[in-house]
From TrEMBL:
<dbReference type="GO" id="GO:0009062">
    <property type="term" value="P:fatty acid catabolic process"/>
</dbReference>
<dbReference type="GO" id="GO:0005777">
    <property type="term" value="C:peroxisome"/>
</dbReference>
<protein>
    <recommendedName>
        <fullName>2,4-dienoyl-CoA reductase [(3E)-enoyl-CoA-producing]</fullName>
        <ecNumber>1.3.1.124</ecNumber>
    </recommendedName>
</protein>
<dbReference type="GO" id="GO:0008670">
    <property type="term" value="F:2,4-dienoyl-CoA reductase (NADPH) activity"/>
</dbReference>
<comment type="similarity">
    <text>Belongs to the short-chain dehydrogenases/reductases (SDR) family.</text>
</comment>
<dbReference type="InterPro" id="IPR036291">
    <property type="entry name" value="NAD(P)-bd_dom_sf"/>
</dbReference>
<dbReference type="Pfam" id="PF00106">
    <property type="entry name" value="adh_short"/>
</dbReference>
<dbReference type="InterPro" id="IPR045017">
    <property type="entry name" value="DECR2-like"/>
</dbReference>
<dbReference type="InterPro" id="IPR002347">
    <property type="entry name" value="SDR_fam"/>
</dbReference>
Length: 246
């Protein structure tokens, strides 16, 4: 599909994406790169990262991979430092790292609940918190009057109630709340735009194949357009938000 945006809309910008090596995160990495950004991808699985970076290079996108877990503050610091070392600045932070599995609440251990909160909610906060000094106006490589932007990837599971997703629903509700608080505080203080994207079911992703196997999503009520969303849809929303178009 042809992008509705000019190919240089993100020229000169640098992006860091957690969970940017696979699924929706990778498509956002790719589209930010195809629209001119340099891209640093953080993820837990080295082989996945390596193939993501190789694919970005094939498109001619300047890209690095940094192995790490958003639950570990040192990994987050290292990912940010590697991004600055390689590209000199940070303009766009995308928090796409997430953990998920289907489990009835009755069978979920408190540690299982905590694990997903740690990845999705605490991880998002940790990365935002450590990235602040690079994103704020006047940060490395940045004009004194201009801050960067944060995009947090959430979900729609928690808008009502979703079977066997108590942990993820709680975690994504917290992500949405973090997005609003940071938009208020860091928008006011540092000219950083903080936005969220809440994808519904998106085809060809681990989320849908793990959480909605078979025809679980075939009802018209769940999908008024009678088709799954596409990773491209989400990536285009990210390009728009990252571009500063207004
Ligand atoms: C019940 C489970 C479980 C399962 C793990 N646990 N998997 N409980 N059912 N299937 C419990 C464990 O028993 C343990 O608790 C605790 O969780 C930690 O498990 P670990 O395996 O030690 O954790 P870890 O290795 O850190 O892995 C975390 C993980 C992750 C969340 C399980 O590996 C994972 O799922 N990764 C997949 C990433 C993914 O699918 N991303 C796409 C997200 S899609 P105890 O008590 O035993 O110690 C998305 C979109 C949502 O978010 C919207 C879609 C429509």
């Amino acid at each position: 599909m042809e992008s509705p945006f000019k190919p240089d809309v993100l020229k000169g910008k640098v992006a860091l994406l957690t969970g940017g090596g696979s699924g929706i995160g990778f498509e956002i990495s790719r589209q930010l790169g195809l629209h001119g950004a340099s891209v640093a991808v953080m993820g837990r699985r080295k082989p996945v990262l390596d193939s993501a970076v190789a694919a970005l290079h094939l498109h001619g996108i300047p890209a690095i991979g940094v192995e790490g877990d958003v639950r570990k503050r040192d990994d987050v610091v290292r990912a940010l430092e590697s991004t600055i070392k390689r590209f000199g600045r940070l303009d766009i932070l995308v928090n796409a790292a997430a953990g998920n599995f289907l489990v009835p609440a009755e069978d979920l251990s408190p540690n299982g609940f905590r694990t997903v909160i740690d990845i999705d909610s605490v991880g998002t906060f940790t990365v935002c918190h450590e990235a602040l000094k690079y994103l704020k106006k006047g940060g490395p490589g940045k004009e004194p009057s201009c801050g960067g932007t944060i995009i947090n990837i959430s979900a729609t599971l928690h808008y009502t109630a979703t079977w066997y997703q108590i942990h993820v629903s709680a975690a994504k509700a917290a992500v949405d709340s973090i997005t609003r608080s940071l938009a208020l505080e860091w928008g006011t203080d540092y000219d950083i735009r903080v936005n969220g994207i809440a994808p519904g079911p998106i085809g060809d992703t681990p989320g849908v194949s793990k959480l909605a196997p078979g025809d679980a999503l075939s009802s018209r009520e769940q999908m008024p357009l009678f088709k799954l969303g596409e990773k491209w849809d989400i990536a285009m929303a990210a390009v728009y938000l990252a571009s500063g178009a207004d």
